[in-house]
Amino acid sequence: QVQLVESGGGLVQTGGSLRLSCAASGSTFSSYTMGWFRQAPGKEREFVIAIGWSGGRTYYADSVKGRFTISRDNAKNTVYLQMNSLKPEDTADYYCAACNSRTTACSGRHLGEYDYWGQGTQVTVSS
Asked: Is 16 helix (H, G, I), strand (E, B) or coil?
């Protein structure tokens, strides 16, 4: 079992930055591919960004390339999402998720691969 808790959401103006954190507990964090997804009101949850268990691979949605970065600190059981140049269309609830790389071929991008999810943190970008 893995418990995930997101933090760092809030209200920011267009062009601003936020850093989200996802703290994990309960299992071997370094075995998990970690991803961020988001869900805007009335829309389906979509892939944003992910990082492999070792941190050596990262995966990005086209909409966030060049603006968002992901990193992880396995010693702290934490994954980070740095969001720069934020746009109103980035407004959504952001969810952290964990895919067990020991049991699943985690591609990083597919929602169905992820075993555990956080409760989400809200990000609002004002125009």
From this structure: coil
The count of residues in the chain is 127
Token pair listed for 61: 């949605």
- For residue 100, what are the contacts with CB-CB under 8 A and spacing of at least 6? 31, 32, 106, 115
Written in H, E and C, the secondary structure of 21-48 is EEEEECCCHHHEEEEEEEECCCCCCEEE
Tokens for 100? 């067990």
33-72 per-position pLDDT tens digit: 999 999 999 999 999 999 998 888 999 999 999 999 999 9
Residue with tokens 């004002």: 126
